[in-house]
Amino acid sequence: MISAIRWKRVMAAVLSLCLITATIPLLPGEGFLAMAAAKEKLIQAGSGGIANPAKPASKNAAWSGEYLYFGEYYQGNATDKEPIKWKVLDNGKKNSLSSENGCMLLLSDQVVDCVQFNENSVEGNEWKDSNLLKWLNSDGFSGFYTSGGFLKTAFQESEQGAIWNSNGSKSDDTYGWYTNPAIGGNKIFCLTAADINNEKYGFYNANGAAQSRKQTVTTYAKGQGANSAGVWWLRSASTTEANFAAIVDFDGEVAIGNVHSNDVGAAPAFNLNLSSVLFTSAAEGSKSSTFKKVATNGSITEWKATLSDKNSMSGSAGVSGKGVSGNTVTLTKGYPAAALTIRHPALQSFGSANYTNVTAALTDSRGEILYYGSINSNKTATSSSLTIPAGLPLGTYTLKIYGEQWNGDKRTDYATGTPYTINLNVKEQETTVPKPKAAPPATPKVKGSVTYNSAKVTWKKVKGAAGYQVYRATKNGKYKKVKTTKATSWTNKKLTTGQSYYYKVRAYKNQGGKNLYSNFSKRLKAVPRTKAPSYKLTAGKKKIRISWKKVHGADGYRIYRAKSKNGKYKQIKDSRSKLRRYTSICLTSHHRYYYKVRSYRIVKGKKVYSPYSTVKSVRTK
């Protein structure tokens, strides 16, 4: 038993399981990323080769996932720092809770130190006010803990810059008998009770003990007072005990401990900004001293990162060699190995940046690294040689030249954020191809509009066309050419209202003294008629006045009325008056009436009607 901690197990099984199910749903068809592929490349662009954790099969299943080394901290003793191993809980998928978009959520693989949540009970169990938060972020903490706090002790400035200022959960969230507080814009934090029940993070989702939540303890942390059984703080506060915060106990169960308990360990977590990660590579033996094809290995589960800085390798850079034009290299299929000479800034010219190697990465069109390695380790050199291997398949490639600081296995490397970029194209051998026969122009796309006595046909300009021919027919007639024009429209005037006319258009261009014609456009039908009148309604006492604007070409107007919008409309007036108004009288007071109007033109004694106007309504007074 943990004598130095006053703690209670307070999660009720039924409520906890309900809350877990409600809080962390697994969407239909949503699964976990598989673990590493059968064979993986030792170096990969970004973090795409790192898989999310596997879902534990039972409470007895250990956490199963991949790891990233980042930063250094005391582990075996209080003198020598060693690379810190972190569990990858979420590789940029934003699986809710403490994850951030575009970040990798990491949890230390061990309890790394021993720090009280607060120095005494009076200071309470609020994460935002905790001494633990201050110590983790090296920000004005109190107490005799590791000098400098965790952030500044464990990470170099460049590494600190790649750690995201996280917010995570909402501050008013709760999870069972625990709060789920926001991270508060801090870099380093502890997980919450909800986090360690999140199956997407690789933790078993159930009440009680769970092997996947257990942590071992470093020798250094034990020396600082951490219980060797592996008990560690969460940032959640107890909602029932004012001076107690959540912990994970020795068997992986969520419990609570007094905020000034002095043997509970710290297992830090943070979100790594993936936009700062240039490469991820196998934690050991991944960086090659020569430019060569990237080797593959079995299942890689331990990685390290290469971070990008603000320096540029492109200043005064250039390339020369076979097939070079500017910053582009063009090779033909079956080429022999191609030697290039690359000009670049000297590594020592970057001042405080301690670059050790000029490196090159050859990627395919998907960004996958095919070849990688050092091409020069002389810090004063301003040019380097590189050979493009023979036999690359047809396609486009990118060769990027970096200045890199290599720091050894399991340690973070650094590289110029802006590389010198060379485009590489592998193409088929060019052959002389006979000139194709001239193709006719494309078929015009036509549309039209009408007035009471005309039809306008318009079409989009056809590329390469010298002109257009318009053909017309009546319903039972043959098509005859009625217009040749260079314009993209033609108006056929003096037409008969109500008569159907049919049009089609073709484009042409001149080739060798002859016209090449496109196919005819689709047939366009046009029926000249008057337009629907524009009108307004004015309500009076038991009457409604309707007035309308003159329609060009109209001989008269018909007015229709109904008692409902979709009811039966009856003609109430056929007007040829020049006044263009009519008043309905003897109507029911306070009743809504609906109207529509159409114009007509008399052709050979018959009325040819326009479409109906839009239905309007008004209520009588």
From TrEMBL:
Superkingdom classification of source: Bacteria
Cited Pfam families: DUF6273, fn3
InterPro entries: DUF6273, FN3_dom, FN3_sf, Ig-like_fold
PROSITE patterns: FN3
Residue ranges annotated for the Fibronectin type-III domain, each copy included: 440-533
SUPFAM superfamilies hit by this protein: Fibronectin type III (SSF49265)
Official protein name in the record: Fibronectin type III domain-containing protein
Organism of provenance: Hominibacterium faecale
